[in-house]
């Protein structure tokens, strides 16, 4: 959406060929209020919740969820109760691309719930956070995702918000398809 791997994983790329899967995006809203972008997504993945959770929380391998990730690094020391992750992701708006640096603290709140908070002092965002919640639905998994990001960089007022919305939407689809594919390959 991605803020996490994910927040900017949700911000990076346009659709990538070859990632088609049975995952369905049930809801995807991208809203802008001044310089703040919010993403709300609900998706159904054709993979069991434990396998999806294992992929989502395998933080050193977040880069497998999207080609937008250039680097993923676990930072030590991490704050108590969190895993600190530095990512570098490529974000393209039309023909202009830039690398976005983020440091996020990931916390497992409960089984199936993950929260990421951006450290603005070490990131190209003034603020950001994301939440993932997984629900079992038989052999499938329902994913609830919410994020909020405030870029530190200038976004052109006319085309920028539209392009960011489009990029966030496209990246959400890439991430969900990859999450499902990897979880299915790994098995329960």
Search tags:
2 helices; alpha+beta; 45% strand; 188 residues; disordered N terminus; single chain; eight-stranded antiparallel beta sheet; Alpha-D-Glucose-1,6-Bisphosphate, Chain A, domain 4
What shape does the CA trace take? globular
Strand % is 35-45%
Q: What structural category arises from helix and sheet content?
A: alpha+beta
SSE topology string: EEHEEEEEEH
Total E-strand runs = 8
Under the CATH scheme, the architecture is: 2-Layer Sandwich
The CATH topology comes to Alpha-D-Glucose-1,6-Bisphosphate, Chain A, domain 4
Number of self-contained structural domains:
1
For the record, what CATH class applies?
A: Alpha Beta
What percent of the residues sit in helical stretches (DSSP H or I)? 10-25%
- Low confidence ranges: 1-21
Please state the average pLDDT score.
Answer: 84
The side-by-side strand order for the widest beta sheet comes to: 1-2-8-7-6-5-4-3
Oligomer: single chain
Q: How far do the termini sit from each other?
A: 25 Å
Q: How many individual helices?
A: 2
CATH superfamily descriptor: START domain
Question: What value does the Rg take, in angstroms?
Answer: 15 Å
